[in-house]
Amino acid sequence: MGPKASLGLSAAVFAAAIGLLIAIEAWLWPIKGLWADELWSLWATNPQGGFLGNLRWRILADPNPPLYAMALQVFRRLFHEPRTALVALNVASLVAGVAVVLATSWRRAPRLGLLSCAAFLLSGPVVAYTLEGRHYALPMAVVFAAAWLSAWMLRAGVTRTGVGALALAGLLASGTHVFAGFMTGSLGVGFALYALAGRRRDLWAPAVALCFSSGLVLAAFAVMAASHTGEMSWVIFDVPSVVEALKFVSDLQFGPLLGVLLFAGFLAVCVAARRGLDLIAVFGAAIVLFVVAPIAISFVVPVIVGRYWMVGAPAIGVLAAFLIRDLWIQPTPDRLRNVATLLALAAWAIGAAAGPFAARKVLLDEMVWAGPTVARLAQACPAGSINVRPPFGSPFIELYPTAAGLPSATFRAIAAGTPPTLRTPAPCPVLGWAEHVDWMLLKPLSDAQLAAMVAVGGEPARDFRVVRRPSGFLVLAPDARP
After folding, report:
1. Interatomic CA distance for residues 210 and 213, integer angstroms
2. CB 98 within 8 A of CB 145
3. Potential cystine with 203: which of 195, 280, 286, 441 (Cβ 3.0-4.6 Å)?
4. How far apart are CA 365 and CA 470, in angstroms?
5. pLDDT in tens, 404-426
């Protein structure tokens, strides 16, 4: 196949990947609801709060770097519908990451760039979190671009422009997600170790750029977020939770265990063929550090969550793409080259095929709030007619009007211990609403006991009825239909 034909085929694969991603997200859209963290994103970026007011009083109160929420503020002003704004920011992030890769590769390796972007777009983490209204798609796009620029520098040489781009990537990564900053900083350490071994001293420049830019922002954020460490108390740190987090990433990136084994076999063949050893050394050191550093930090402050580690997954795809290129452009025994390529393609195919179903499981497991149901039933309800139980305490009662799209005055916060009262005639089809509760503790409670938690009294079935949900419950008037 000639160069033009292969370039055309690569472009067709890239276009097909875009179409397939759109189709998968359209399939997932009906089951995607909004859970507490996404509602917090919308509350913190409410245009009525003002850009600087939101930044000072809401965004900086989040124990996460502020760049995602700052960008979301812009998109909330561009797109009136909240869910559209969330998805539009994610799509823009993916487009930007892909644009960096295509712009870098277009002159010297356009096919590699196109196929790498196609693989990235169809990877499980991207498929699962394109619709998510939190800081996952944006940092994954930044990590994808940073990993690509790092691998490109190993092959095309160190340039001032490249070093500057990596420094910017480090700033963006650590400004969007702590684990994205860990990943770019880890790539810098990988460069440093390789340079320290005397292999390539020119790699000190990208090493310093990545370590300094990532570390500077992470250090500044650590100082700022020191008073919020208690907000990570929900994270469990023990051996089973670490294994579960790693399995979460593996399931999304590789699918079943066979995908992991195939990828490990691919790396083994590359080592046996002595191809891409510098890539394996730099990226391998970075990935090991990316796994080990959060574990070490968790002995002080637990930080390990599967979806946090997931933001570093694009580096795996970049490593595979450049290793395959090395096998084909450098003299390699046909048997080893063919076996390695088949192993890599099989591992990717299994992961890509499993990705939509793993993504569906992720979405179905989310503790989605009953906002759409309340919005439909309570459009005409008077002020103070819906009793709600704040999920985290003040000011998070605002998550209820955010979820339902109703005025804040419609809801009345119920403090713990408030005595239940009979609400007849019902002032609203929705009498009470509680979300983000510990359902394992509430499961054995009767309907009357649940209603009492939101200060609704009376007899079940006669005066109210309770609708139990995975994330909480609704107390409705007897004739209301959810």
Report:
1. 5
2. no
3. 195
4. 9
5. 999 999 999 988 788 888 877 87
**Cα-Cα-Cα-Cα dihedral sign, residues 13, 18, 21, 27:** negative
Q: Are 202 and 163 in contact (CB under 8 A)?
A: no
| pLDDT tens for each residue of 426-479 | 788 999 999 887 766 777 889 999 999 999 988 898 889 999 988 889 999 988
Q: Model's pTM, two decimal places?
A: 0.91
End-to-end CA distance of the chain: 59
Q: Which residues contact 325 (CB under 8 A, 6 or more apart)?
A: 109, 112
Backbone φ/ψ region at 270: left (φ over 0), alpha (ψ -120 to 50), beta = alpha
3-state secondary structure the chain: CCHHHHHHHHHHHHHHHHHHHHHHHHHHHHHCCCEHHHHHHHHHCCHHHCHHHHHHHCHHHCCCCCHHHHHHHHHHHHCCCHHHHHHHHHHHHHHHHHHHHHHHHCCCCHHHHHHHHHHHHCCHHHHHHCCCCCCCHHHHHHHHHHHHHHHHHHHHCCCHHHHHHHHHHHHHHHHHCHHHHHHHHHHHHHHHHHHHCCCCHHHHHHHHHHHHHHHHHHHHHHHHHHHHHHHHCCCCCCHHHHHHHHHHHHHHHHCCHHHHHHHHHHHHHHHHCCCCHHHHHHHHHHHHHHHHHHHHHHCCCCCCCHHHHHHHCHHHHHHHHHHHHHHHHCCCCHHHHHHHHHHHHHHHHHHHHHHHHHHHHHHHHCCECCHHHHHHHCCCCCCCCEEEECCCCCCHHHHHHHHHCCCHHHEEECCCCCCCEECCCCCCCEEEEEECCCHHHHCCCCHHHHHHHCCEECCECCCEEEEEECCEEEEECCCCCC
Contact (Cβ atoms closer than 8 angstroms) between residue 323 and residue 280: yes
What is the C-alpha separation between 115 and 308, in angstroms, rounded? 26
Classify residue 58 as left (phi > 0), alpha (psi -120 to 50) or beta.
Answer: alpha
Return all residues near 119 (Cβ < 8 A) that are at least 6 apart.
17, 317, 320, 321, 348, 352
**Residue whose entry in the numeric block shows the structure tokens 């107390």:** 475
106, 177, 166: which is closest to 140 by C-alpha?
A: 177
Return the higher-pLDDT residue of 62 and 85. Answer: 85
Q: What is the largest distance, in Å, between two alpha-carbon atoms of the chain?
A: 83
